[in-house]
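User: Predict the full complex structure for these chains.
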Amino acid sequence: MSGNTFRLSTPLTEEKIKKLKAGDIIYLSGTIFGARDAAHKRMVDAIRYHKKLPLDLKNKTVFYAGPSPTPPGKKSGSIGPTTSARMDNLTEPLLKAGLKAMIGKGKRSDNIKELLKKYKSVYLVSVGGISAYLSTKVKDIKIIAYSDLEAEAVHEIVIEDLPLFVAYDIYGGDIFESALLVE
Amino acid sequence: MRNIKTTTIINEAKRLLIEASFNLPCDVMEAVKSAAKKEISERAKKILELVLENAKIAKKQKLPLCQDCGLVYIDLDIGPDICIKDSSSLNSLLNQAVADTYTSNYLRKSIVSDPLYERKNTSGNTPAVIHTSFTSSPGLHIKIYLKGGGSENCSYLYMLNPSTGEDEIIELVLDVVKKYVTKCCPPVIVGIGVGGTSSEVVKLARTASFRNLEIRNPDKRYRQLEEKILKVINETGIGPQGLGGKTTALACNIEYAPCHMASLPLAVFMSCHSTRRADSKISPP
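Assistant: Here is the predicted structure of the two-chain assembly.
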């Protein structure tokens, strides 16, 4: 059941993603981008109406996260994944624009697995509800776009060894299905 | 009759909001510890250990247990000996207390104003959902619950035929768990409401999901039903975070009430492993 363990840095390119299988553990370092419901809606609208995106999505990793505010003297507030399935209907335009990895929590619709095969992208899960612990993996965090959305703004997040599991790989592998077969 | 000033209630509410945000309740902590010991899967064990590690860090560093600092429920149970001075301003003062506490403690504000059109953040995590009720128990009981959006989205209401039996109810709850539980941060606490009305049964389920895990149902039949449902949920193997294991739920709690002879309302209300609650009783001198 336990997969391989990888220490990886961003950008997560197709070459790196090809090696990953559902069930693998990743310790990810580098820069990722926090964006959830409201930011997704705006980015999808921007793509649809040929407006400028707040970031070039090519080879980027998006973290479905809306962190708590950073207290003085700390590098980050609490941070963790929100439910990924809410982003399912807003995912394909971002994949088309080059998005390579998504970090969230929970099962997604089956359609997402097909899209990940098509666009050679990967869905990673982080453990939900351990956000004080995960904040210790954040080296820097700042809002880079849509600041009026407050917690739902787009955040640039510098991480070191953020622990993740590969949930859906580019071959159709699914950690939630394989987990059920074990017990 | 004893007078309680609104300022006393407000100060206590602020203290409870902070306690709930940074401290995992002892009974939840114990349930996670005991589940971690029983897990065979290394992955499940590790996740449960991280939940405990997170609770330590949150408490020590005064960081929220979860970045989703929740929607605030405030229940006030008012005893027969209590008179609240200036009660007309109580709700607005409680909301102000929520906004002040969330701002000064760097808690995430997650409430948007209009649900359908603007969805603009209210910038104070308000309004809170405030319920007041009169009880026979003396004193003023303040209960604070912080509810995350992920688990809130897994609430379900069924209006069943009165002929529905226990087995069908077990199947319905199991179906909700199988379909949706990975979205609400398992291991969860499954709150179930049975009876009442369509609007009341959801409140019963909410009360059940926030009930202290050491308190079991006083009615033997419902207590046994809680045990049966918990057993089948944990036999699914869905496990912590849906990544496999024996601990999909920490508990199943049921609350019930009389209902119309034509009805059998059933509600499921999930709480995540980061179930945050704090309460205290003010007894005036």
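Residues 117 and 170 of chain A are 5 Å apart (CA to CA).
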